[in-house]
Amino acid sequence: MSTSWYATLPSGACTMTAPVRDAPYEDFGCLYPTFAKTFMNWEMPTENFPKILEFMENNSWLPIVTVTLYAIAIFWGQHYMADKPAWDWRKRLAAWNLFLAVFSGFAFMRLVPHLLHNLWHYDFQTNVCADPYTLGGFGPTPFWGTVFAWSKFAELIDTFFIVVRKKKLMFLHWYHHITVLLCCWHTMISGSPSAFIFCVVNYGVHTVMYFYYFLMAVRCKPKWMNPKIITVAQILQMVVGVGVCVGSYKYAGKNGCFADPLNIRGTLFMYASYLYLFCEFFFKRYLIKTGNKKSKAA
């Protein structure tokens, strides 16, 4: 490992060493004591934290089997519900969306101050190449990053509600759930530093998105909250993802950069495909439909 990435770290009382790989990092709680007062014991990594990563490295079959069963369950579920009435699970759906909105919002608030600190004090190359422990430290940040990867299993439940309520299941929906789960797992075991950026942006977009779905489920969506806002936010997320991947690819695997070339290529393909699909959805849903309405009105 080249020490060039560590050169950007100021030597001071808040520079510490993580118990994993002896990676130096700036302790965020030390830098910002007021923020540190909000840290909870269950958020702080313990000696079991490296064991979680080791488990993920040794069990790459788990996400593969999960998405396979997920795909089978989708088509079986649609076949099962074909001649049955839709389930009236609006209240359960509302509760589920509210839970995901609160969860995403709390995680976003936990991580975004640390990410802003890194983006302000470190250059782009450092943010996409440094040891993940150097960027994330050894506090709540790695905890919420790990929870992010595992939360992609729970988000598969979104599809269950669509199937049992007999709503239209878009290719974009199940393709997104499958690929993001596989990508997040590989990103964790490959230790891609740019994952910090992707994680925070995704938490932020999901906070707004799931809260919007909650309001829709309880029929309390304000008139000013146009659904276009959600799609535009999702498109911007994909633009950020593509931009970070393109920008970091030239550094991947070179001069001690922790960015894994295979992971960067896979993540770039994933974000690029999402960008295309979300833009296509936006065009068909809002531009063509709006154009047709104007034509009929004329």
What does this protein structure show overall?
There is one protein chain. The protein is mainly alpha-helical and 298 residues long. It has a domain at 90-158 and 186-297. It is built from 13 helices and 2 strands. It is globular and about 65 Å long. A two-stranded antiparallel sheet has the order 1-2. A hairpin with a 6-residue loop joins strand 1 and strand 2. It has helices at residues 28-31, 33-36, 49-58, 61-81, 90-121, 124-129, 132-136, 140-154, 157-164, 171-190, 195-217, 228-249, 261-297; strands at residues 15-17, 24-26. Helices cover 69% and strands 2% of the residues.
Core attributes:
298 residues; mainly alpha; 69% helix; two-stranded antiparallel sheet; globular; single chain; 13 helices
List the helices and strands and how they pair.
Elements: E1 15-17, E2 24-26, H1 28-31, H2 33-36, H3 49-58, H4 61-81, H5 90-121, H6 124-129, H7 132-136, H8 140-154, H9 157-164, H10 171-190, H11 195-217, H12 228-249, H13 261-297
Antiparallel strand pairs: 1-2
Protein name: Elongation of fatty acids protein
Family: Belongs to the ELO family.
Subcellular location: Membrane
